[in-house]
Amino acid sequence: ILSSVTFALFCCLLLFEFNLAFMTSRLLMSKATSKIILSNLPPNLRFEDIDHLLSQHGRVVSCDKLTSKDPSTQTVQITYESAEQAQQAVTHLNGVQLDGNQIKVELAMDKRGGRRGPRIPGGAPFGNLPGQSRQTDFPLRILVQSDMVGAIIGRQGSTIRQITQQTRARVDVHRKDNVGSLEKAITIYGNPENCTNACKRILEVMQQEANNTNKGAYHYC
After folding, report:
1. Same domain, 201 and 148
2. SS3 category, 186
3. What's the alpha-carbon Rg for the chain, to the nearest Å?
4. If phi over 0 gives left and psi between -120 and 50 gives alpha, with beta otherwise, what is residue 185?
5. How far is CA 64 from CA 67, 122, 142, in A?
6. How far is CA 117 from CA 39, 60, 113, 138, in A?
7. 88 and 146 within one domain
8. What is the per-residue pLDDT across 15-72, written as a single tens digit (0 to 9) for each?
């Protein structure tokens, strides 16, 4: 009887250790894959300059400046809330042009991968990291004709991505709201100047679309 109890306890201990190791590995994997590396960033870029791009794909938890191989560029590590958000950011941001630089975005490897460089505390000019004070973003909500939404978004999101890069405002198109409605809502986030510039660019795109489809002048309300 004693040997049976001992064997049962031994099996339980093995099962517990296996589950603990499995959960630990899953946790480490989750932490690693929720981080992305942005390299070849312009030397004078600040966090507030790309915050609108990063926040389109999820909530940024932290940002750390890393040692860059090229001293004329910057490299940073961004941590998202989830691995899915990080993967989405890599898919949409890799190759984006910022102030003449084509940035490289990839998932961060763990320490054994050897890609992560040492962190630089603070680090100018890449200041205004999450948690530090920065200018408040104001929401601006506009209504557009539903048949203009495709032109505003562009092929594979190219037009709306260009608008956000040029104006440094975040643009959310509520395509799934009010299905069948003749109008769709668009919310623009940023400081007043950025919101105004983004709104102007959207109106220009709509006017161009009206001209291309022989609808004549687009009347703004």
Report:
1. yes
2. strand
3. 23
4. beta
5. 10, 8, 35
6. 12, 20, 11, 36
7. no
8. 555 555 555 555 555 445 689 999 999 887 787 778 878 888 888 888 888 888 888 8
Cβ neighbours of residue 188 under 8 Å, at least 6 residues apart?
139, 140, 141, 142, 169, 170, 171, 172, 195, 198, 199, 202
CA–CA dist 198, 187 (Å, integer): 10
Count of the separate structural domains present in the chain = 2
Q: Tens digits of per-residue pLDDT, 155-179?
A: 878 888 888 888 888 888 887 776 7
Rounded to two decimals, the pTM is 0.45
Q: How do residues 193-214 score in pLDDT, each as one tens digit?
A: 888 899 999 999 999 888 887 7
Tell me which residue range forms the domain holding 87.
35-107
Q: What is the distance between the alpha carbons of residues 45 and 136, in angstroms, rounded to a whole number?
A: 19
